[in-house]
Amino acid sequence: ETSSSVVYIKDLELTKLPKSTSGNVLAEDENAKVEGTGSGFIWDRFGHIVTNYHVVAKLATDKSGLQRCKVTLVDSRGNSIIREANIIGFDPEYDLAVLKVDAVGNELKPVTFGTSRELQVGQSCFAIGNPYGYENTLTTGVISGLGREIPSQNGKAIRGAIQTDAAINSGNSGGPLINSRGHVIGVNTATFTRKGTGISSGVNFAIPIDTAVRIVPYLIVYGTPYSDRY
C-alpha cells in the first residue's frame, strides 16, 4: 500500500539547453546524462515530493540551467507516470528538499504520517526505495538506536537521527522508513560502508519524520527553512 506513494528520482544533465522549456516530460531525444538516482515520497495531493537535499543538490545549486530532475510516480489508479520536477525548497542542515510535479488530472496518493517520538529500539521497520535503480525495493530490519548524530550537508550535525539495520543503499536516499502499519517514521538518508568496498555495514540512518513535519511546510511556502527567514 505504501509503495504507490514512493517515487523514483533521476537527476539528469543536459548537454545543451533545450529550445523549449515547456512540457512536463523531457523529450526522449534530448541528449541527457544520468547524474544520479534517488527516492522520495508524495507529501500531499498538490504534487509536493520530499527527498534528501543531497539527492537533488546539483539541481538546487545549478547556475547553468542544464540540470533537470525526472520523477517516476504512480497515481491512485496504479498508472505509472513520469514528470519533470522543479525544486521549490531545501534545507541542507537537515538534508531535506521539496520537489513539485504538475499532477493535473492524476490523483496522487500521499503517504500516511506516523510519529518518531514514541519509537523503541527493537521494533520492526521497513525501508522502501530504489537502490541501484531497482524500483520499489523493500528492505526490513529493526530500530537499532535513537538520538544519533550524523553529519549534514553543510557540515553541521543532524541530531536525533534514527539508526536502523534495514538495508539502505545508493538510490534509497530520500525514501520513507515506515513502521508495520505503513506509517512513515523517517526519511532514509545515510549508511556507513566498509572502507573501499561500497558494502553497507548495516549501520543506516533516517531523519525522524517529526523533524520533517516541522521543516517541510516552511520549505513549501517560503522555499527556505524557518531559521533562514530572519
UniProtKB/TrEMBL annotation:
<keyword id="KW-0378">Hydrolase</keyword>
<comment type="similarity">
    <text>Belongs to the peptidase S1C family.</text>
</comment>
<dbReference type="InterPro" id="IPR043504">
    <property type="entry name" value="Peptidase_S1_PA_chymotrypsin"/>
</dbReference>
<dbReference type="InterPro" id="IPR009003">
    <property type="entry name" value="Peptidase_S1_PA"/>
</dbReference>
<dbReference type="InterPro" id="IPR001940">
    <property type="entry name" value="Peptidase_S1C"/>
</dbReference>
<keyword id="KW-0645">Protease</keyword>
<dbReference type="Pfam" id="PF13365">
    <property type="entry name" value="Trypsin_2"/>
</dbReference>
<protein>
    <recommendedName>
        <fullName>Protease Do-like 5, chloroplastic</fullName>
    </recommendedName>
</protein>
<dbReference type="InterPro" id="IPR051201">
    <property type="entry name" value="Chloro_Bact_Ser_Proteases"/>
</dbReference>
